[in-house]
Design goal:
The chain is an alpha/beta fold and 499 residues long. It has helices spanning 23-28, 55-60, 63-67, 152-186, 202-208, 259-268, 348-360, 385-409, 424-427, 431-436, 454-464, 469-475, 487-495; strands at 3-6, 9-12, 43-50, 70-72, 78-86, 113-119, 123-130, 135-142, 193-200, 227-232, 246-251, 277-281, 285-292, 295-302, 322-329, 332-337, 345-346, 374-378, 381-384, 418-422, 448-452, 479-480. A hairpin with a 2-residue loop joins β1 and β2 (9-12).
Length: 499
């Protein structure tokens, strides 16, 4: 079998293996489009006995990159001995763990120490508490399942190809590492953590528990289980903890409205008031909840990975080198870069700002036509016509989902007293620009309240007061508005494509 020198470490692999399928690649790099050769983000530098350049690579790579030996990992197979090195910046991402927390009456779901964990599609975040309710440590990292695709659909496809166990193993390993990091920061033994809550969207919890995702892959999209149950650390292969440690997985609402929304609702507090309020988590899967007249209704819309950086030609996560803010100063685009370094790409918040500034500069019109098909944000970072189209698809899905939810309830946007924006991307979102480009309805601008990582905050709340699990369970009984066959959503979706 051929030998691959991967980042200077030697591996023996079967001939014909794709570079993207090699274990060291899956452990350290992402595959945003799920290995379909669509995104051009899986660049590596590779030399030796490899498959010839594919047509996809010739279209995706520049002549200089081809000369330098850059290949796409998902399009390149190992024919014999070769060397592979990951390309690009490997800086740590800036992941939001903070979220609004109300006053809590303590009734902990643990005796000594408890952990709250949020499994996001893109990121993982965790907190450690003691029995007095004191926050001892926080930790976060990227979700390693990104090696199987940036979105839940790609991961469902991977699971159906026979990689369900591998998807479970990588996220369990990452959770074990987070728990170790938390315990070291607090100077306690990891097995002193004797209770935990793990929240996440429905697909993430299915993958964690190795529950079949087959029913989630086709209509009528019925989840195999909706959780709201207790498992042991042993059952989840969380070996950092004592085997009998109880792990609570909060209830999901439906196939694509998960426990991350029920715990976010708890943290937001919007269901404890009488006013009409919305909760929106903007990500690859935009989930939203409407509280009106003492009742909850939900919907979910596939926005795609544009706001996570994965669907943009020079998109990246929020880490050093990423443009996270764009301004128009004296008619010229000016960018802020995370880490104050030279820019190498642009993250979600920067994407929203960039589109708003291009509109203000009249380089982009209301139909989405970009003058010259290319805009330089800050050399060498550019924004293309295809990037604009990706933003249009994503922002119209979120906006149309909000309006359809309001229409179904028979209320106007002006009736909404609070629009709570949850999630990592939402934490850094320039809300004025989000309204300007039509990601959010402009009528709701004054109602916006950014609440941070509300899913993790809600998980922390039910960790610190187990009696509130019942409140979460009540939220999960709300009505789901199906968008795929909804004519209002279809009409709104087309209309909101315009800027």
């Amino acid at each position: 079998m051929p030998t691959v020198l991967f980042n200077d470490v030697s591996y023996t692999v079967p001939a014909g293996s794709r570079i993207s399928d090699l274990p060291p690649y899956k452990e350290t790099a992402a595959l945003p489009c799920g290995g379909h050769g669509k995104c051009g983000k899986c660049k590596v530098t590779a030399t030796g006995n490899l498959s010839p350049l594919s047509e996809t690579e010739r279209e995706s790579l520049t002549s200089d990159e081809i000369t330098a030996g850059v290949r796409l990992a998902c399009c390149t197979t190992v024919e014999g001995d070769c060397a592979v090195r990951l390309s690009g910046d490997r800086a740590a991402s800036v992941i939001r763990t903070a979220g609004d927390m109300p006053e809590i009456t303590l009734c902990p779901a643990f005796t000594a120490y408890g952990a709250a964990i949020d499994i996001g599609t893109t990121t993982l975040a965790a907190r450690l508490y003691d029995a007095d309710g004191a926050l001892l440590a926080e930790a976060s990292r990227l979700n390693p399942q990104s090696a199987y695709g940036a979105d839940v659909i790609s991961r469902i496809e991977a699971a159906l190809r026979g990689e369900a166990h591998a998807l479970a193993e990588v996220v369990r390993r990452a959770i074990n590492e987070l728990l170790t990091e938390l315990s070291e920061a607090a100077d306690i033994a990891p097995d002193s953590i004797d209770g935990a809550v793990i929240t996440g969207n429905t697909v993430m919890l299915h993958l964690l528990t190795e529950t079949s995702v087959e029913p989630l892959s086709h209509a009528p999209f019925a989840a195999k289980r909706l959780f709201g149950e207790v498992l042991t650390a042993s059952e989840l292969s969380l070996s950092t903890l004592a085997p009998r440690t109880q792990i609570y997985l909060p209830p999901c609402v439906s196939a694509f409205v998960g426990a991350d929304i029920t715990t976010a609702l708890l943290a937001s507090g919007i269901c404890r008031g009488q006013e009409t309020a919305l909760l929106v988590d903007i990500g690859t899967n935009g989930e939203m909840a409407l509280w009106h007249g003492g009742k909850l209704s939900f919907c979910s819309t596939a926005a795609g990975p544009a706001f996570e950086g994965a669907g943009i030609s020079m998109g990246m996560g929020g880490k050093e080198g990423a443009i996270d803010r764009v301004y128009l100063v004296n008619g010229r685009l000016t960018a802020h870069v995370i880490g104050n370094t030279a820019p190498v790409g642009i993250c979600g918040s920067g994407v929203v700002d960039a589109v708003a500034c291009l509109l203000d500069a009249e380089l982009l019109d209301e139909t989405g036509y970009l003058e010259d098909g290319l805009a330089v944000i800050a050399p060498p970072v550019t924004f293309t016509q295809e990037d604009v189209r990706a933003v249009q698809l994503a922002k119209s899905a979120i906006h149309a989902g909000i309006r359809t939810l309001l229409h179904t309830a028979g209320i106007a946007p002006e009736a909404v007293a609070t629009l709570a924006i949850a999630g990592g991307f939402g934490s850094y979102l320039g809300t004025a620009n989000a309204c300007k480009i039509g990601l959010l309805p402009s009528e709701l601008r004054t109602a916006i309240r950014v609440i941070g990582n509300a899913a993790l905050a809600g998980a922390s709340i039910i960790l610190l007061n187990r009696d509130l699990r019942e409140e979460c369970a009540c939220y999960a009984k709300g009505a789901v508005v199906e968008l795929s066959t909804n004519p209002v959503f279809a009409d709104e979706y087309m209309e909101r494509m315009l800027f």
